[in-house]
C-alpha cells in the first residue's frame, strides 16, 4: 500500500528499453472515475522493462490519498511488477514474460474522508521479439534508488557494459528491474544511504567466458555469512565505477531457462477428499474427577503447618519466660 497525496493523473509516460537504445513513448491515458473500462490502453513489450509514470497526483492540497494497484480479480500485481512513489508521481514499472492483456486497477482512498475511487486501464503485453531469452544475469547496485534511474541513461549505459561482457550474444537488453525492498531487501541502517536496485540482463545466447569467470570470482563471497558487500573488488569493477555505480557482488547471479520458469501457468483445481464426520463422545460418558479431596488437602496441610509453627513458637516463648523468672528470684 502506497501513501501519496492527490489523485490519479490524466496521462502516463511509458519508457521501453530496447537493445542499447532507449526509446521513449508517450501514452495519453485519461483515467476516469468509476469501474468502467474506457479506451485507455498502454502497450509494452513482453520480457522487457516498462515504466508508466503517473503524474499530476498532487491536485488537491492537504488531501492524503493512499493508492493500491492490482490486476482486476487478483489481490496484487503480477510478479516483477511494482508501484513506487516518486515526488508527486506514482511509478508503475516492471516486466511481464508473456503476451497478455492485463486489466490494471488502481484504488485511491482518501485517508481523511475514507472515500475510495476505482480507476482502471488496460496494459497490453505485445510480442516484440521471438524467441525470448533463456539466459539472464542479475546484478545489484547500492548507490541508486529505483526512481533515480528512470528518466536517465543509467540502464542504457549498463546495457552497453553488459554487451561488452556478454560478447557471445549479439543483443543484450534489460529484462527486469526492481528496488531491493521490492524483492525482500531491508532498508539501509543509515537513512542517508540509498535503497539500491536490482537489474537483470537477458540474451538468447549462452553466457560468455567473461561472465563465467566473473561468477567464479564472486562465488567465494557467498561462503561468508553475512556476505561482505565491500570485501573484494572484481576484475570488471572499473567498468561500473566509470558509470558512477557501486555493484554489490554478493548479488551477482547467472540464471538459465528463465522463460520457462516465469511462464504464468493457470492454477489447477485439485480435488479434495471430504472429511469424515466427527462423532464426539457423549458428555455423560466422559470420566469425571472429584475435587473434594484436593480442596481438603490444600486447606488442611497449610493449617496444620501454621498450627505447628505457632505451637513451637509459643512453647519456646513460655520456656524462655519461665527461665527469666527463675533467674530473677
Automatic annotation (TrEMBL):
> GO cellular-component terms in the record?
sarcoglycan complex
Pfam families from the xrefs? Answer: Sarcoglycan_2_C (PF20989)
Organism superkingdom: Eukaryota
Q: Where is the Sarcoglycan alpha/epsilon second domain?
A: 134-254
Membrane-crossing residue ranges in chain numbering: 295-321
Write the signal peptide boundaries.
Answer: 1-22
Q: Which UniProt keywords apply?
A: Membrane, Signal, Transmembrane, Transmembrane helix
Task: Write the protein's name.
Answer: Uncharacterized protein LOC108864448
